[in-house]
Fold each of these.
Amino acid sequence: MATFGTLSDRLTETFRNLRKKGQLTPADVDGTVREIRRALLDADVALPVVKEFTGKVRERALGDEVNRALNPAQQVVQIVNEELIAILGGQQRRLQFAKNPPTVIMLAGLQGSGKTTFAGKLAKMLEKDGHTPLLIAADLQRPNAVNQLQVVAGQAGAAIYAPEPGNGVGDPVLVARDGVAYATRQQHDVVIIDTAGRLGVDAELMKQAADIRRVTNPDEVLFVIDAMIGQDAVNTAKAFQEGVDFTGVVLSKLDGDARGGAALSVASVTGRPIIFASTGEGLDDIEAFHPDRMASRILDLGDILTLIEQAQSAFDEEQARKVAEKFATDSFTLEDFLDQMQQLKKMGSMKKMLGMLPGMGQMKQQLEDFDEKEIDRTEAIIRSMTPGERRNPKVLNGSRRLRIARGSGMTVTEVNALVSRFDQAAKMMKTVAKGGVPQIPGMGPVPGAHGAGKRGKQAPKKAISRSGNPAKRAAENAGLAAAPAAPTGSGFGLGPAAGPAGGPSDADLAEIQKLFGKG
């Protein structure tokens, strides 16, 4: 996750040095704790949180649980992971729904923190879970805030209550109260109230938010905080807790490049759990906050569980089973490949998904260089093919490949590369589907796979003369060496050489030219 990139790099480097030591001394522990303290302070984590965190890590690292461990360095990493989970809130906390609908959710926070966008994201997420949310436009101060919420509601496919035009016109407290009553009449089971913010904390802001809370009696008050605002995050959170109080925190803009450590302090300082994380501009870029998974990402240990959940939500189980059967029977086509790419795109950014794999923090440059548009280009090439060509790529001769290249805006070389990669991938997946271990291009055979590494059929020994006469034996061996080997086929697999001097025939040359698009 981009926001915690610097902190993740510093901690990973610290633990890399730690793992080189077979036995830890108190000096090693003190040095490690000192580096962790610097990393947290550089990441804008609040000083009281840093002191408490490093104190617990040092105390546990010098205790018996590390001294008796088989691998003390790994044990210290585990301690840091557990303490990081603790300052992030410990356990995941879900939304609390009212026993008698509607459930009222009020959003609070400074202007520009992402409240309005988050309202649309939350509405879309709740709709997927079978709820019928209603958005209430109670931000009547910021210019065009009502219009923005209307646009977001339309994109999310959610209902909206916006009786006032905003831009300084209307009473937000009355709008919020009447909106909850409207939701009850229209049988909406969730209400999301978008309130006004300010550029800074002031008495007017707090009074308005407190009045809205008083008249609507919300089940959840979510404090939306920008993960990029630095140390002021802690002061802002304390001010809102004292003025309005809130039941949970939403971290927004976690896809930014700020240090973001102050956001880690909010849960610890306020005692309120982080419930959601907003990771992008799209309405699908929202995820439930899991302290253990976030700690794993910061320590570059990956987040496989979230990756699996995203895959399960994007991929159809029945379709996946059919694809597996096609792999096993060698009937997987480019049409199936196109369907798989469509489902892959539903999961979101490839960079984000790859970043959830363990150890990917050490491949940051490769992730940055990854071109998200490569999937779109591949899709364009496949869509430029006819249904028959997708089902049987073997019919793709030179003229067909040239037509596909022109239709997709690509080159013939790129079309050839796609077909070649598809053939290799299909062969590998067929081997995997049958329980084998594929041979990856550029690597040798895997030991123990399909008899690899075992003594196979020995090559035939070279014929030699066994005559007892030395002169005759030398003459016979010279004759055997001079005899040409029997032709077994041309270098292009076109059958026995038919041309003059063992070379390819004119017909073979014409076929080769067609294959490479030169016919």
Amino acid sequence: MTTRTVHVPTPDGTALATDVCLPDGTRPVPAVLIRTPYGRDAHRAELRGWAAHGFAALAQDVRGRHGSPGEWHPYRGHETVDGAATVAWMRAQEWSNGEVVVAGASYAAYCALATALASRDTVGDAACGAGPGADLDDLHRDGVPDAVIAAVPALGLAETAREPGGPERLWARAGWWAAHGDRRDSDPDALARALADDPRLLEHLPVARLAERLAEGLGRELPSWPRLWADRGRGRLVALGPTARLPLLAVGGTRDPFAEDTVALWRGWGGPSRLLLGPWGHRLTADPAAPPRARVNLGALYVRWARAALAGRLEPTRHGVIALGDSGRWHSTPGAAITPDATPPDRPETECRWPFGSPTGLRLLHGAEFSADPGRPVRSDDLAVPADGDRADRCLLLSPPLPRPLDLAGAAVARINVTADTPSADWAVRLTALDPSGHADPLAFGIVRRTGPPGEAADITVPLGTLGRRLPAGTRLRAEIAGHHFPAHARNPHTGEDPVTATRLAPSRRTVNPRGSALHLPVVARRRYVEPAPEICR
């Protein structure tokens, strides 16, 4: 196989640095394209892997990053036209048989999806500076790929900045912008160094001007930081998904903060779609202590799926698999089964209700009334809980030990009846599994923001994400309900002001009414264990 670097032209004249790895032989072959802001050099082994299986493999630096000229504007329309131009260029090469798979993880998954979901209007808008002689009809026709692999997709500015329920994702965005924002290369340890110099950095108010303080530690400006919080156009790619007809492989992890975006993309896709949800975080890596049976060769699975997709061998349906934690067991789920409101026969899970204040559900330990003080917020990076309720900062509940192993696969929610004495209140629910020795393992989390008249009781639903776990007998479930989850999420100031621009904080008195509150978990009723690769590729 051979690898070389070329510069692929785009309609406005920008030439994007692209590594091309070709398999041995001279016959035309299918191709895979990865467009990334994180450096094409990091994909050399991946390109060789695709080429070894008979694919031409390309990794491209997006505009304004690493080897590609231009200006770096995350999630702007140029990703659509640059991707379409690259796909069209690939199809014109002598080594191409015309078949193209676009693939990527995180921001690269966004690039792949923006290319796959490009419409004539979006290509035209993004290429408005193409200049004389640019044939946008040809670009649209030739620039649409044949299949897409989207792993842990970060679907847009709004999706990465805020939870679906409103609260701002502070830690993750500060870390990403410090590492990649407003620069041509990357510095993954930038935030860690800044926090070492200024441990209270993320407490800075207002959040909108955090970049000014962060710049002191970084030695460079972050002028694009405010635009991150100004963009509220959530759900554009998911909304376009039903119009797609090409096959999709959506890959995510139950420990990935963007897992629900992966599920929503898969659930709404118009073409044949497959979901692979493993016991992974955003880097698609499992716990190092996980047994070998819990690991999946993603590279081999991608190749097998791509071949089936390009050959038209995938069933025109929507289905997928969810790993039951590190057990090595995978649960098959049809398209409707992962939603909390699906009904049999599409749903092989049973919603198990764990009422609050019940000896057989979740027993209230303390904190039915508590104080949510943004000056002393419940922390996201500490699983320790207060020993008593004298100064309760959260509502704390505990289940009895499980009498038998429990398999969970699907959407979990907490439905709570609550009161806050402030016009705006965040409600964070954290669910932890305690083994018989008391070791705490995070199980699920959700946070939503509610605005309304102070003192008014409200029934609130807090989505807790998609679970995939096997809980052994003797496990106890610990539930915490709090008003903050800092520094993962920005602090709600409780004044009714926008948390991004607020400079004044106030405590909030909270009440959780156990009566009418419950945890709803997706318990596997009919076990359908499968091998992930055959299920994904059928």
Amino acid sequence: MKKSLSALSLALLLAGCQSLGGGEPEQDNPVTNAEAPLTAEPVDQGNDNDEQEAQEVVPAPAKDVWERIARQMTLEVPDNQRVNKFRKWYKANPRHIEIISERADPYLYLIVEEVEKRGLPIELALLPVVESSFDAFAYSHGAAAGLWQFTSPMGKHFGLQQNWWYDGRRDVAASTRAAMDMMEYLYNKLDHNWLYALAAYNTGEGRVFRAIKRNKAKGKPTDFWSLDLPSETERYVPQLLAVADVIRNAEEYGLDLKPVPNAPRLKEIDAGSQIDLALAADMADMSVADLHKLNPGYNRWATAPDGPHTLLLPLDKADGFITALSDTASTERVNWLRYKIKPGDSLGVIAKKYHTRIGIIQSVNGIDGNMIRAGQHLLIPVAAKDPELYPFSAEQRLARKQSKKRANYKIEHTVKSGDSLWTIARANKVKVSQLASWNSLAPKDTIRPGQKLVIWVNRISKNEDKTSVMRQISYKVRSGDSLARIAKKFNVTVTDLVRWNQLDAKKYLQPGQKMTLYVDVTKISS
């Protein structure tokens, strides 16, 4: 669809879509500007000498963005079981709507502006309700991230950068533009049918194409409601339509939508070079947490060295930030540490110590390979403040997630070569989905040796108590060892040893064989 397509043309086009059943548009035609006037036709009362001028009917400006959205809805909401199920759920769970209203507050105006600018159905602005419940830090079981839940490959395809410093899938402004690019692409590919496009956004255009082709071959209807699609997709589109209906009729349904001012709230500013988020927050007279919440795309304590360097700031903070930025040279926007290499140092050890990556140290210092010499000096970019003062960095978000109590005991597991989420979960009798969730991962994510995972369990051995201090240890089998002897030494059971190490209890242990144990270090036999 061309971006110049007017909202009125779009409404007429949608009215003819097979998937919409030829439904009539709203009584008031949608307009790209929510506050634009609607003009009534002149009224002819049959008196040539008493002509009346056309009267202009000007609706009151939308009070907030929710009302602005409700006025422009064009997609038909059918009365069917799938839609009714979600409508009923939203009506029965008003707190969920309240939470969504609160989360959407900073971003909703920006999103609506982007949708209207392109002349797209305003209902697309509600997709984050279904995708992420408007949680900009959302990460799903399918390894999708951000408000619009882009997977990594799809995000890259639509121009969203992803690296150690930055994940464009969580950048609200960038991901909103990418999501609308994707919706336009799908609409054009799928017969200019918005329900097809929405379904494809969830499950991929190939599946939708194949479902249409199958129905055509069998002489069946090919509207969305007749297609055989994955169950998640068959729920996805009805859920969005139900959300639209609930938003449009919130007052009638007794639901409380937190008002979102119908005015610009944020300004996108390009700092022009890498900048420490703590420094940027000081320049904008904000807390680091408040700044980072508006800019969740940044994984670390600063914008990415090679960009982007854009920041979303509250409108009333923007001018002060711009002034302070202009008075600060680009070389002063990140702190640099001059580090003298010590005997025994490695790039990995140094990178870990200063919360950075080996590649960054190599790049900054022009190092090829991993060889360094004691006595040399390295320049290392470092955070201006303690890492804990960047509460929305990837490290701090992971630390909070891993610390949240899920069961009686927390086991810390260091990933070894050959480990997978499945093998670790099986060894500890937990679900892969649980293990992934506790560690901010998706079940299909790859883990790497040295990575730290937490495992929450209610029981580790028969002898644990509430004062136990559980640790993961590595044990090398000695000559004369047996499962029973090792179990007694570490106050665990043979069954646990077999389970933790996927052993065959009937086979003898071999000297030098390595085993992983989860033990109460306060009860190890001497």
